[in-house]
Protein 1
Amino acid sequence: MNINNIFEIQPAQDYTLIRFYGFIDASTVQQIRPVLQRQLPEHSANLIIDMREVGFLDSHGVGLFVSLLKQAHRNKGHMAFAAAKGQPSSVLQMVGFNGGLVSYCPTLSDAYALFVKNRAV
Amino acid sequence: MSAPIATPDRALKTHAQTPARWQKTIGSPAYADLPPLRAEMRRFLDLAGSPAATSDRYCLSLCEIISNLVKHPRQKAQAVAITCTAAGAHLRLDVADDSTPFASFDAICKSAPARLQAAGTLAESGYGLGCIVAQHARVCYTPAAASVDGRNHFTLEDGAPAAAPQSAPKPLVFLVDDNPADLKMHHRMLSGFYDVVPLGDAMAAMAMFDARRPDLIISDLHMPGTDGAALRRRISALPDGDTVPFIFLSAAAEGMNDANLLRLGIDDYIVKPATSQALQRTAERVLRRREQVHRALESRFHRDVQKYLHPHLPPQAGRWRIALKNRMADAGGGDFTLHSGNEDSLSVILADVMGHGTEAKFFAYAYAGYLRSLFRGALAPERGLAPAAPHTLLTMLSAAVAADDFLDASLLTCQSFRLAQDGTITIASAGHPPPLLLPRRALPSVLPVAGALPGLAGADYQPLHLQLAAGDKIIFATDGFFDAFSAEGEAHPPAALMQMLDTCAPMGAEDCSHEIWQRFEFCAQTQTRPPDDATLIIAAYGGSDEHQ
């Protein structure tokens, strides 16, 4: 399995975008986690998790997001899920991340605006 | 990926009266099995006409069950048999395996409604079972020792079976008797009403008790080896054993008045030969009483916890007026406050333990007690010493959380502030939504106070010092409050809240809190999110009520 087909990281000035593809489950998270830890810049504070291309999310994926959330907060940043739909969206709702800790943005543009607006403020 | 050890037997039938069935057997499971298994089951459910959301739930649960089998058992499964049946709205998934049974699953499944809350504590693992239990109407784990085919079974079910109306599961009764004829006869008398497990001696009952927790034990008193009285004593010594109702059966009527037996705390004594009616009525009465006591205790627990957690602050502290509003949601985690004051200042801690339901409430209850103990000396020091500053309290908290695995497995946000009599306020925050400043003669604004969640490495809490003028107010709140005003994805602070604060500037603390809370309740009604605990604190300096 090519890890580049599962996720990609795009650092930007106000945020780091992590785009996931396909399944974020027990079969992929084991491979994602170490590569993500290596590739994600240590200072990454604001994270946008692009969920547009995610078809399936399980509890291992939720655990991965929790570790990203902790990194964001460690760096005094924030995390936003963008454009989650279908099954992944249901799982995120079920697990119930605290609305004060993460943002759920209906589109990727909303997530960009969230961090760019914060900079402007 | 492990190789399948049997060819998939997909015998999908569309006849209205016959359930469609998908069966699959695999060898030692691996994570790589998950995508193809999920795809096969989805195809089956699609063909069976299940709604997409239902298919999603079953696919997720199948993955979580298989993942647990890959990850946890001491002795891995060599064969896993998956059976999914669909008949109209009735769906059932059974996963049978030959691994070492999970000792804790039974207890988890029995406490199903509370299980998801563990998922809400933001540990990085442990969500799987919570997801399963939260998604299905009935979840059952039967370890090999208690199953008919000697395999562990994880069974999920939704909707009523088409052929049989949905009914509550029968209470589980252990029937223990060394006399095979009596055992058979009593089994026949009870089996129409209860799920009866016949056991030939006390040791078999002890072994079964490890695997399944009965709702009632009916035991012969006189048995060779370990007799009924010894069985009662041994069961009572086990965790939760003393709460299981116990009825003795004996041919000797004089045992009813035996002081030694009465001291064992049994629930009844039936003299053999027992009639069917006597046996059934006694069992029913004892089980009803147990249910009654259980409900009463649960209700008292909720009442006591809510009473203890209910945030409260003094309405006045020197020249400060303080108003507090709180909504304690059944489903939400726990908000709580701690405070301590002297003639110079009032120190307050506002905390929010994340999670939902009874388990989160219990966690908040435990957390509140822990923090009370942790901060006792720091908040109310011996005479002559100043209480610790807000940022010092948060540093103490963060260090304690980092050093304790139990606390680190939960998520708490916390804000600490001190109101001094000269109008200064010192605020520090640990992952909490920032407070709002509502000046008497200016626009409301967000105060720049932030800090890492307690327990994160290198957490460094910076205090914000502010001098308030008479009539100025500070608004503290938990995320459950702010969420009610927020549109999906909206950043803090919510625009709807800031707009209404403009009109509240001239008000005193009490009027202002009343006005805002009314709007909060209105907004909360229109929210689709499950209700969370919400707390609002308004601190007004200089007796702002007199300035109206």
Protein 2
Amino acid sequence: MTRGLLRMLLVMLLVCVGVAHAQAIEPMPFANHAQELRFQHLTRQLRCPMCQNETLADSNAPIARDLRNQIFQMMQHGSSDDEIKQYLVARYSNFVLYNPPLTAGTWLLWFGPLLILLGGTGAVLVAIRKRSHRDAVATEASTANALIDSTPTDNGDDW
Amino acid sequence: MNRLLPFFGFMLLVLLFGFGIWWNTQHDQNAIPSPLLDKPAPSFNLPKLYEPTQTVSKADLLGQPYLLNVFASWCVECGVEHPVLEAEGPTLGVQLVGYNYKDAPADAKRWLAEHGNPYNLLISDEPGNTAIDFGVYGAPESFLIDARGVIRYKHIGPLTPDVVAKELKPAIAAMAHEGQP
């Protein structure tokens, strides 16, 4: 009985997903297939200002639909991808770009991971150097002991 | 000392996450800083809500500062903001211009009849194209525009008494101060 219920829920979920998808992408009268591909490629790089976790291509928000229409119109008038991006950035700031340009406000975003990597590498190198130094001292000490006693000693306490 | 190192590392993470939570409560994560601040407002030419045959342009509104308030009857948070506009609107000392966004004029009129009309002037942008030039992406949004047509302040989301007292009124005061050298 639970299995039947689960199956029904799954079917309902799939239907909902299908409907949402159908609404998000309304047909547009593209001049040719290349333009359609260009449109899809461009809208996937742009972020919906309203629902900031979705691209303009995916979002079903009213503003996303308006912006898609605007982009479509601009394409019909021969605007390049860069011109369209500049148009949107002038109105909605760099937030609309999923690939943010390098500015004073974003350098940490761009170079933060590199800084963390460098810091981590530094810490590991220091740790390795310390350990090898200690090991060298320990080996020397045990060799000296061996020479004096000429009997093997337990080095377990070196750890 | 070395034994305590993981503990200090952990405390550092706790501080970082605590700071993140504090920061998020202080800031609206959905508000996008407008690139239009301190720039001339985009030009527009929109019909009046109550007399659709007459239009209002940016040039018509030059000469005196105004607060452009983007609202719609479908917008839930506009209902939250509305009592604040009604109470604070007359005390602001600037014209209150209602910008009806992506709304059927009939719905907007019904909404205003029901909730009251705090606006000095109402314009209608049913297709929502001019709003793109303003960088509007939802409602409510408010723009403070000075006598020369420059956007001096923008608020995204409902104006609360707190926002009016701490942000909007100081911005209006700064503008008025500048106007009388």
Protein 3
Amino acid sequence: MPRKPSAKQDTELIAEAIDGMNHGFALWNTDGTIISCNPNFRSQFQARNLNLSQGLHLAELFNDLVATGELITSKLVQDLIDDETTALNELSTTEYTFADGSVFKAERWLFSSKMVAMLVQDITEAKRSERNLNAFLDNAKKIDHSKSRFLRAANHDLRQPLASLKILIYSCMETLDPENRAELLHAMDISVSIMEDLLGALLNIGQLDAGKIEPVTTTFQISTLMERLDVQFRDQAKEKGLRFKIVSSNYSVVSDRALLERIISNFVSNAIKYTETGGVVVGCRPDGSNLRIEVWDSGCGISPEHEEAIFEEFFRVSDDQAHKKHSLGLGLNIAKRLAEVLEHPINIKSEPDAGSVFSITIPIGDIWHSDIGEPEISERIGGEFTGQRALIFEDDPLLQKTLQELLERWGIETTCFDTFLEPDALAEHLTYPPDFIVTDFRLKGGVEGTEAVNQIRKHLGANIPAVVVTADTAPKIIEMIKARGFPVLIKPVSPPRLRVMIHNILFEPNLLDELNSKDGDN
Amino acid sequence: MNDVIPIGSMVPLSGPSAADGKEFRNGVLLAAEEINDAGGVLGKKVEPHFVNSGRQTAEEVVRAARGLITRHKVHAIINGYNIGPQNSEYEPIADAGILYIHHNTLLQHHDTIMSNPKRYFGCFMGDPAEYWYGQGFIKFISWLRDTGQWKPRNKNIAIISGAKPYSIVIANAMASASSQFGWDLTFGPKIVKSPTPDWRPLLSEIRDHDPAVLANTQFYAGDLANFQLQFIENPLDCLLYLQYGALHRSFSEIVGDKGKGIIVGTVIGLPRDKIGQDFAKRYRQKFGENATPEVGCQPYTSLHHYAIAVALAGGSGGPGEFEVNQRVAKKLKSTVFRSVSGSINYHDKWQSAIPYPDAIHDPSLGIPHIFYQLREFGQDNSIIAPEPYTDSRFVKPIWLS
């Protein structure tokens, strides 16, 4: 049977256990002097300039910890000492933050009539998790709040154009007058685009909230963006009787092209919305290594107290119904948030009744790095045939499809027929005259391809180049086609041979004779 | 046969491109000699076989390719350019499963490769497509303007195009990029046949459009020389750009000092850094003072690059050895080679060299699109763009007001 430990052994065991604890432990006299502490307490609270030994008063300890910067506190030292003394007497719990970022919690209890025990635990991880959780909760509440606000506002604002649309539809159904009908249809179109804009704003906000917008930064010519703004807004400004001017620039800039356009579009849209007379000007101003794009308007302006608030969600400067009904008050908020994503500062200068200037500043880029904006470098966009238009007569569906795909890969727009139509009928199907024709020799209905081409040429009054393809290898047929003045290729047509042929009929017809003189080869 | 790597080369040793053809042959010979002097590739000597591609028609070039494959069992075909076959030579080469590195400078190459990357795994274009000349030139003149090196009188640009696909693509690319950079295309692109004995009527027509810039994308040296002599009789008050052919010795010999001030571009040239100069010296030592290392550098570079790829892949294969050659092709694509012409870095989809700064901003990863300004006859042309390859600055031509 194991021997029961003696009282002395008990004490030693307990002391060993306390020394080995993962938490700090200290014993204090009720007068504030320390009696003893375990190694863990010592390692955390050892003051730099003092020896943490029996008899040291807490005032000296905390004074030294604060003076050396090891303990972080916003309190004055004396206040801290007073609080510690109070905590000791009242046996309360306190927290300490140290310079290395660690956080400790101290709990106190009466050990005996004159002694207070203090247990100190490292709660750094718990604090960190709590902070993260609080931040997450705050964010979630904000998003939720914002979404609720947004959905309420969207619900309200979308109802209006929907209601208008309903009325317009009923009116349109009942009216017989064509002019009236046209006006109603136009008004319906406007209602639909208002809803489109509002839904677009919804999407923008959704994407921003979800953090799903990832900029794709390139160097590009600012002129391309300015041109698009001109196309997008000039008619809108004109309808309102406003002058609208884009002053373009040759600068290359570094940004996300699409997001930057959205931001400036929001500025311009706002400018037109809040300007009744005068006009809107969009221009660029170099500013060191940056380019500032400015949108000037002669509108109602913004009073200084609203200059920050206008970038908040749902804020509208004017309560005027005319502005309010078509806007959620989100455009500038979206612009601001997108600008933050892009790290481009935006600015506003305004004077009530005199107009405003909204601006965004973007870095100037190296012109050599300027991205032309082509999605793929291929013949479809850059080949010698890009933009050429071909008419194809081929009744074999597979051959027609193959030929069409090949030509379109070379950048050629194609219109295909499997039957020859009379030129008048053909003209109805053609949106443009062709630059050249590729025709099978034997077409459906017994028409020969050469005759078909002649009829089209006569109808259009132009000697459109053409090439005949045929599976018929009889020398007599080949000679006949050539004698009629047509270059001929034998099926199956090899792409390189076809390419050379098309090049020659379009650009080097003088070489056709040489090409055509080769007998029946491919 | 096992101790050699037979390499084919289809070079125009007669016909209009014979001068270049001779240099292409020189480039292959010098590269082969250097590789063999260093011990060959994995102990095997490189053995070049040349076939004359003459007028570079599809028939001649396809016949040349077939001959090299069937008769000499070449592991690769490495040349300069053969403009005319419209990629028809790719077919027998793809059928054989060997490697092909050319310098045709054609956008067509992109489409052929992308149409069937598996079939054309071995076909590479060791220089960028001609398309890049277009936007590169527009960026160049915009850079000259925006850095204050040149003050154009107006924004007008006029473009004359040669009749070949190469010239048309370049002219169209210039035209489509011009407005983005603040230029107004007031004339052209007007396609002009070759040869054109009398440019004067066309020049007179262009004069009415008052361009600040005139670009001529015709590339035959003879035609361009004729153009230049007639231009200088009564020069337009504009910056003048001539396509690649103006870099030829034959052009300089015809126009002499009357070519001074012209701007010429090339997407594959010879930078004047130490690597380039050392190569030029070796090249002239071997082939004579009148040799043109700026042309020979093309297949020279590609043969060295191929040799590295073979070494990394563990060997090369003849016709029919698809697996081996696919490994070589993979290594060629994945190994950026700093050659005498700049860095050959193959685009993954196009299998053509990526141009700097047109398509890549890092000069260590692209081959420089060089802009020269011609100087007095006999003097080296100035390289005036892009950095860091320049050795001089733009000088206003004497005919500019």
